[in-house]
Amino acid sequence: MILAAIQDINFWLYTSLYIIYFITVISTIVVILSENRNPVKSIAWIVVLLFLPVVGIVFYFFFGQEYRRQRMISRKGKRKLLKNINYSENEISNLPLFLSSESIQEIKLGYALGEFIPYPGNKVTIFTEGESKFDMLKSKMRKALKFIHLQYYIFNNDKLGNEIKQILIEKAREGIEVRVIYDDVGCWKVKKHFFEEMTAAGIEVYPFLEVTFPQLANKINYRNHRKIVIVDGTCGFIGGMNIADRYRDGVPWGIWRDTHILIEGPAVQGLQSSFAVDWCFTSRQLLSEKLYFPVVAPKGNTCIQIITSGPIGEWKEISLTFLKAISNAKQYVYIQTPYFLPTESLMKVLQVAALAKVDVRLMLPEKSDSPVLQLASHSYIKPMLKAGVKVYFYQKGFIHSKTIVIDDEFSTVGSTNLDFRSFDHNFEVNAFMYDKELAVKMKNIFIADQQQCRRIPWSYWRRRPVASKVKESIVRLLSPVL
Predict the structure, then answer these.
(1) pLDDT at 221 over 80
(2) Which residues contact 140 (CB under 8 A, 6 or more apart)?
(3) What pTM, to 2 d.p., does this model score?
(4) Catalytic residue ranges
């Protein structure tokens, strides 16, 4: 009798749990549908919820919630930052005369999306490997007279990381203002004492969206992927390289091929604005003083717009500007990206360009640091090849470069990959650059890298083993949530 009662209790307990779980799943699906997201992404999450019991609901609460309606900084705070930059929309009519009507359109779009200001008169130095980039970074930081603002997704406690840390500590002891933002998930493997040593030396250090319970599910999926440094408001770095030995020393199968740039000129204000917004978000301190936004004389001929994007805000700023630039292309579009998981709109605009006989070239790594992401990336190659896109696999090592160059006028370098995560979940930043001489340099770098690649013909790709195609197709279903 007692046994029967226990069995009865267990039955009703399990039944109640099943009912609660079923209601939770249905409620979550209703929420997903009511948010009117991209249908592909919505379907992907519904598939996960229905076919991965328990795991699916956990995945959703950790990685699937939408925060686009929130703000990183108040309107009042944004106005305080912008007061240091005397600029109005009317000044777009005074942009350099050499710019094409297509470039003017793209610049106007960037300004409309987030008041991202175009700055003429900049000098740009391109770095395609870590040694020269980090040598220049260390040199510029050692010469700092007022402040250093540094922000990286990864700031490792390794040889390079300690070299950078030591310079920052030395400058702080000299009385230079030093501020550091690191991403909490990007630096999960880094022990706290690494950053505490900087704090003890007088450096202000903050993690971006620190992941702690009970807010774990609200924060883990939204990461700050930006990689920028500003020194004295007169020069700044932006690109794809984090602070870790592999960015300088390479990987077991070859070099680490990346792209980073040094900007000298008025556009450094754009980098400082990006940092100031993130600093306000993490520290609740507004860096609105003139000290951080000095007037910088023109140093070169490149017009630059610094554009940021993230899961907070109304628009997907970088994604939309990419789409506009590619759709404006008349001659060629050359792209380098380590991960290629395009949104439907990006895939279509690349196909349309290629079908219209624009020379579209896509460079991906032969071997990736993420086998799962590589499988998903490969699932998108077939529709690219069928439309006439030329696909190249980089063989000399791992290509982590995130660049686009178009028609000998437009080029962009930054932290943004061509994937759902960069477009939807990460906080990213890119320099959108308008200058013929610089674009030609970027094009020539792409062509030089092409010599280290093998081109993937359609005849080869369609004859791959069926098992490979099946694995890629399965992983592709999850690409919007990877």
Answers:
(1) no
(2) 229, 231, 235, 237, 262
(3) 0.85
(4) 225, 227, 232, 400, 402, 407
